[in-house]
């Protein structure tokens, strides 16, 4: 007999030291320190997306986060992909295409350097955060053991039931079920699967809760109490929200991006490889739409495309020009509210509790 939605959420909150079963999504590339502190201060789980950060920066962030709010937080890493296959002639065509949307792209731009995964993982271990989360794949048995011995819980992102099963077998303590609605990168273990295996949360949550015996945190298109209540009813123990916090007062999305979210219907977002070479859901800007034309060059593999698109992305951000911006957005972008993050949290959880038949908290 399965526990009722609210009981399941309460058990999850007790286990991870939360007052609300709502986690901020880790969002690499954005400065989410204040947003994270606001979410954890309001009883949710704070987050750092550490993909691009040096080990020292990860340690500094954790110290600063603790100084701002005593609550728990997750630190998130991308597990490494195989090295990309390079094609210089094709990269030349991609550079020329990108220059239509921003400044000339330097010849060396494809040499994108990634942080050393083991050094980042070591910094997370030393930061002693409550949760280490991963996306794109699994931790090695050594890292699973080290994190477990140090008291960190590993949450693995899965986009399919098969990935969730593999994560359970590898020792994950919880599964972040990421639906195809989600903003930002899709966490398919194989880059090529990201477009092939697009499963919406309505089907993914029951599939994963049936496939594994672990708590499930639902992510993708959840931005108000209706989404939270639906996810918990389908078997999730908690939710993870990204886009729904991008317009919060503490968030630092550039104004053109934040503004465009407020009017974006689900069909105004697209899955695109145009920013990093890995598929992610973004607003359908002029650049993203131009990439869909038959004559547009296919994006280079990850992380080469990330390097190639950097000049365009940075110029667009500096000029607040949405068309070249890496404007990630989930399908519920329109529901993102411009309000203090704590207020967004409290309203989302209050609405969900009411829908699930709980007595009012007030
Ligand atoms: C701006 C942005 C950046 C993201 N960066 C990461 C990341 O670094 N690591 C990760 O695991 N997920 C990342 N995600 C995906 C989120 O973890 C989550 O799956 C997604 O936000 C849920 O869908 P929603 O945006 O509709 O709430 C990102 C999402 C957004 C919107």
Please name the defining characteristics of this protein.
single chain, three-stranded antiparallel beta sheet, 362 residues, 14 helices, alpha/beta, TIM Barrel
* Mean pLDDT metric: 96
Total count of strands: 11
Name the CATH superfamily assignment: Aldolase class I
N/C terminus separation:
31 Å
| CATH third-level topology | TIM Barrel
Number of helices: 14
Largest beta-sheet characterization:
8 strands, parallel
CATH class: Alpha Beta
**Small molecules bound in the structure, each named once:** flavin mononucleotide
Structural class assignment: alpha/beta
Task: Please give the radius of gyration in angstroms.
Answer: 19 Å
CATH architecture: Alpha-Beta Barrel
Order of helices and strands: HEHEHEHHEHEHEEHHEHEHEEHHH
Summarize the SSE layout with pairings.
Elements (H helix, E strand, L loop, with lengths): L4 H12 L5 E3 L8 H9 L4 E4 L5 H14 L4 E6 L9 H11 L18 H11 L3 E5 L5 H9 L3 E6 L2 H10 L3 E5 L5 E2 L7 H4 L4 H11 L4 E4 L5 H9 L4 E4 L13 H7 L7 E4 L7 E4 L2 H5 L13 H15 L22 H15 L7
Parallel strand pairs: 1-9, 2-3, 3-4, 4-5, 5-6, 6-8, 8-9
Antiparallel strand pairs: 7-11, 10-11
Helix pairs in contact: 2-3, 3-5, 4-13, 7-9, 10-14
This protein binds flavin mononucleotide.
């Amino acid at each position: 007999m399965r526990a009722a939605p609210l009981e399941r959420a309460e058990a999850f909150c007790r286990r991870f030291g939360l007052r609300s079963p709502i986690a901020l999504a880790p969002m690499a590339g954005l400065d989410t320190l204040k947003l994270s502190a606001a979410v954890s201060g309001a009883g949710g789980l704070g987050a750092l997306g550490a993909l691009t950060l040096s080990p020292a920066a990860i340690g500094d962030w954790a110290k600063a986060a603790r100084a701002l709010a005593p609550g728990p937080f997750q630190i998130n890493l991308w597990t490494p992909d195989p090295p990309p296959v390079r094609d210089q002639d094709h990269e030349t065509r991609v550079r020329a295409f990108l220059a239509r949307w921003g400044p000339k792209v330097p010849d060396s731009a494809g040499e994108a350097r990634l942080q050393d995964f083991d050094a980042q993982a070591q910094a997370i271990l030393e930061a002693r955060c409550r949760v280490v989360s991963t996306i794109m794949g699994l931790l090695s048995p050594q890292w699973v053991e080290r994190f477990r011995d140090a008291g960190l819980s590993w949450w693995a992102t899965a986009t399919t039931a098969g990935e969730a099963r593999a994560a359970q077998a590898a020792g994950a303590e919880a599964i972040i079920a990421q639906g195809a609605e989600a903003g930002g990168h899709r966490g398919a273990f194989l880059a090529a699967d990201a477009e092939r295996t697009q499963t919406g949360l309505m089907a993914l949550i029951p599939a994963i809760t049936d496939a594994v015996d672990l708590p499930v945190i639902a992510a993708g298109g959840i931005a108000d109490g209706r989404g939270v209540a639906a996810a918990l009813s389908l078997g999730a123990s908690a939710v993870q929200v990204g886009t729904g916090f991008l317009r919060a007062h503490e968030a630092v999305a550039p104004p053109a991006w934040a503004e465009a979210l407020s009017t974006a219907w689900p069909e105004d977002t697209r899955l695109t490889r145009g920013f990093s070479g890995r598929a992610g859901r973004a607003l359908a800007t002029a650049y993203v739409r131009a990439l869909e034309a038959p004559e547009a060059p296919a994006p280079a593999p990850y992380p080469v495309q990330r390097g190639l698109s950097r000049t365009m992305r940075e110029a667009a951000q500096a000029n607040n020009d949405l068309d070249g911006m890496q404007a990630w957005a989930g399908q519920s972008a329109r529901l993102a509210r411009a309000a203090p993050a704590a207020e967004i949290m409290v309203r989302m959880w209050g609405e969900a509790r009411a829908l699930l038949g709980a007595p009012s908290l007030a």
